[in-house]
UniProtKB/TrEMBL annotation:
<dbReference type="Pfam" id="PF02899">
    <property type="entry name" value="Phage_int_SAM_1"/>
</dbReference>
<dbReference type="InterPro" id="IPR004107">
    <property type="entry name" value="Integrase_SAM-like_N"/>
</dbReference>
<dbReference type="InterPro" id="IPR044068">
    <property type="entry name" value="CB"/>
</dbReference>
<protein>
    <submittedName>
        <fullName>Tyrosine-type recombinase/integrase</fullName>
    </submittedName>
</protein>
<dbReference type="InterPro" id="IPR002104">
    <property type="entry name" value="Integrase_catalytic"/>
</dbReference>
<dbReference type="Pfam" id="PF00589">
    <property type="entry name" value="Phage_integrase"/>
</dbReference>
<dbReference type="InterPro" id="IPR010998">
    <property type="entry name" value="Integrase_recombinase_N"/>
</dbReference>
<feature type="domain" description="Tyr recombinase">
    <location>
        <begin position="143"/>
        <end position="326"/>
    </location>
</feature>
<feature type="domain" description="Core-binding (CB)">
    <location>
        <begin position="10"/>
        <end position="109"/>
    </location>
</feature>
<dbReference type="InterPro" id="IPR013762">
    <property type="entry name" value="Integrase-like_cat_sf"/>
</dbReference>
<keyword id="KW-0233">DNA recombination</keyword>
<keyword id="KW-0238">DNA-binding</keyword>
<dbReference type="InterPro" id="IPR011010">
    <property type="entry name" value="DNA_brk_join_enz"/>
</dbReference>
<keyword id="KW-0229">DNA integration</keyword>
<dbReference type="InterPro" id="IPR050090">
    <property type="entry name" value="Tyrosine_recombinase_XerCD"/>
</dbReference>
Length: 350
């Protein structure tokens, strides 16, 4: 397996390699397998350093692994994992590293190798005290996704004006249809319905394997027509919609990494280092909420199975909430004044 070449420690642990092969045979995405391999390999390395058999590792051994993760800097410098800590991996990264370790122990339980899983899930367990909540090893921090202000969005659009027809179309589709990076880069010519301005997002390209149809706006349709004329100079064959323009890969499908580099470069030029390929999705869903869309409609548009996932994506700015509060308070204030006036009138009549 390629992951064993990348992480040699996996080849030294037969059950770990076997567990990864099972997930691979079940058809998990290559990026998922790579993430599982990395998290499990790092755990196995910590076990080897401590002289611990990973098959029989205890909760204390897993805690040592967590401590190793929280005390080392990330590739891009230190991230705050607790107030004023200034070191360690981000909370979301810690959770990501623990997922394959927990699933590996689940596998060992199913195989009869051990009886319990030392990695807590944070799930309800009947019979436990204090409300029956089993806590995970690492508290899960839920942060609001960052979205640009109006001025910041205009700065990004200004920076994109000098980009190619393909890049401008990709930004428009990413926002207009709230597309994930993989969904965007995997679009094909037969996914388009220009007559109705609809776009098919195929199940195999989505995160949860749910196919959906989403609309795109008239301005995006203009960008699409402009790009299709340019695409004809690269290839007239039906197939991948978004093609590379580089000398080395002319006419080949655009990769995820190419789009990430484009967004990173343009966002940096606009002075928005926090802007990523996923920011357009957050912004679109938040804008739909601002326009008064029902949460279930937003979930269907985003391709979420549950509205809980949608609620994690959308958020209103403090100004939006302040405006809503002010509007609500004005209504309540007017109602109280009317009631007071009615009471005063009644008192005068006596």
């Amino acid at each position: 397996m390629i992951v064993e070449e990348k992480w040699p420690v996996l080849a030294r642990h037969e059950r770990a390699a076997e567990w990864l092969r099972v997930w691979t045979d079940l058809g998990r995405a290559p990026r998922t397998i790579d993430a599982y391999a990395r998290g499990l390999a790092e755990f196995l390395e910590v076990c080897e350093d401590a002289g611990v058999d990973p098959d029989t590792a205890s909760r204390a051994d897993v805690a040592v692994f967590v401590r190793a993760l929280t005390t080392r800097p990330g590739r891009h410098g230190a991230n705050v994992v607790s107030i004023d800590s200034g070191a360690g991996l981000a909370n979301a990264t810690l959770q990501q590293r623990l997922v394959p370790v927990r699933l590996f122990f689940d596998y060992l339980i199913e195989e009869g190798v051990r009886e319990s899983n030392p990695v807590g899930r944070g799930r309800y367990t009947p019979g436990r005290r204090f409300g029956g909540q089993q806590r995970g090893l690492v508290p899960r921090l839920t942060k609001l996704p960052w979205i640009p202000s109006e001025a910041e969005w205009l700065a990004l659009l200004t920076a994109f004006r000098g980009e190619s027809a393909r890049n401008r179309l990709m930004l428009a589709l990413a926002y207009d249809a709230a597309l994930r990076r993989e969904e965007l880069c995997s679009l094909r010519t037969d996914d388009l319905d220009p007559g109705r301005r609809m776009l098919r997002v195929r199940a195999e390209t989505t995160k949860n394997r749910l196919e959906r149809m989403v609309p795109y706006s008239a301005p995006t349709g203009v960008l699409l027509a402009d790009y299709l004329r340019h695409r004809a100079t690269l290839s007239r064959a039906r197939g991948p919609l978004l093609l590379s323009q580089s000398r080395r890969n002319t006419g080949q499908p655009v990769t995820l990494w190419t789009w990430s580099k484009v967004v990173r470069r343009v966002a940096s030029a606009a002075g928005l280092p926090r802007f990523s390929t996923h920011t357009t999705r957050h912004l679109c869903l938040t804008d739909l909420a601002r326009m008064g869309w029902e949460i279930h409609a937003i979930a269907a548009f985003a391709g979420h199975r549950h509205t809980d996932s949608t609620l994690k994506y959308i958020h209103l700015s403090g100004r939006d909430l302040a405006d809503k509060l002010a509007t609500g308070m004005q209504h309540i204030h007017a109602w109280r004044i009317e009631m007071l006036a009615g009471t005063a009138s009644a008192g005068t009549g006596r």
